């Protein structure tokens, strides 16, 4: 069943001359409230937009595209579904930026799992050049493997992944970090002794990276 994506915007609690817009993108089977629970961890000058994926899997469960088990036992998606998802994703980011009233150059994507995978492509070639991408427990999107150059070369990346992740191996994030470095992009890559989740240390590293990015 398909629905339109939903955007929840939480304005900054304090006014500032240096606003930051953090766009939160959940994983497959989750919803917009998942990462929004992290909002209290960040400064009061941050505006948050939490985007719910458009395809309903069940109550409180959404995705950008359906997954199937491939011949090698891994989860895959049809190329047409991925292309459509990227278009919807770009539309969602544009609407979130417009609703926030903050310059797109101050927007940072924070994606977990599927949200991280979707954020990679947009961070490199999206219609709006966002300031940064925080990609947690994701992997390199297949369509980027043939890419030799990108549009948004100023976008900076933080990549984090658990070494005990049974859903998406950390090797996928390592491959993405290597790809970004080959392109000459700014990337910070960390691994953690955790499964498919976000640890306190990972969150602390994200906050440290963000502080440097927006200062």
Element-level helix/strand string: EEHEEEEEHEHEEHEH
Named CATH topology = Rossmann fold
Q: Work out the helicity level.
A: 25-40%
Poorly predicted runs: none
First-to-last CA distance: 43 Å
CATH homolog superfamily: Alpha/Beta hydrolase fold, catalytic domain
Provide a brief overview of the structure.
It contains five helices and eleven strands. With 215 residues, the protein is an alpha/beta fold. The protein has a single domain, classed as Rossmann fold.
Describe the structure.
There is one protein chain. By secondary structure, this protein is an alpha/beta fold. The chain has a single domain (6-214), classed as 3-Layer(aba) Sandwich (Rossmann fold). It has 5 helices and 11 strands; from the N terminus they run ββαβββββαβαββαβα. The strands form 3 sheets. The protein has a 7-stranded mixed β-sheet with strand order 1-3-2-8-9-10-11, with helices on both faces. The mean pLDDT is 91.
Strand-helix topology:
Blueprint: E1 6-10, E2 20-25, H1 32-36, E3 46-52, E4 55-58, E5 61-63, E6 68-69, E7 75-76, H2 79-100, E8 107-112, H3 114-125, E9 132-136, E10 156-162, H4 170-182, E11 186-192, H5 200-214
Parallel strand pairs: 2-3, 2-8, 8-9, 9-10, 10-11
Antiparallel strand pairs: 1-3, 4-5, 6-7
Summarize this structure as a short list of keywords or feature phrases.
Rossmann fold, 7-stranded mixed sheet, alpha/beta, globular, 215 residues, two-stranded antiparallel sheet
């Amino acid at each position: 069943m398909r629905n339109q994506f939903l955007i929840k915007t939480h304005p900054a609690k304090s006014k500032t001359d240096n606003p930051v817009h953090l766009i939160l993108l959940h994983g497959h089977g989750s919803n917009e409230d998942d990462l929004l629970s992290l909002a209290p961890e960040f400064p009061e000058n941050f505006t948050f937009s939490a985007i719910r994926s458009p395809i309903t899997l069940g109550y409180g469960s959404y995705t950008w595209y359906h997954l199937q088990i491939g011949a090698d036992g891994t989860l895959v998606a049809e190329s047409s579904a991925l292309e459509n998802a990227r278009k919807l994703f770009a539309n969602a980011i544009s609407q979130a930026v417009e609703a926030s009233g903050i310059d797109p150059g101050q927007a940072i994507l924070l994606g977990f799992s599927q949200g991280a995978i979707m954020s990679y492509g947009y961070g490199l070639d999206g219609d709006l050049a966002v300031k940064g991408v925080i990609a947690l427990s994701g992997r390199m999107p297949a369509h980027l493997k043939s890419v030799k150059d990108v549009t948004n070369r100023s976008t900076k990346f933080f990549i984090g992944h658990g070494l005990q992740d049974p859903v998406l191996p950390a090797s996928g994030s390592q491959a993405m970090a290597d790809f970004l470095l080959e392109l000459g992009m700014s990337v910070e890559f960390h691994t953690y002794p955790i499964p498919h989740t976000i640890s306190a240390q990972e969150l602390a590293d994200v906050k440290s990276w963000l502080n440097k990015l927006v200062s």
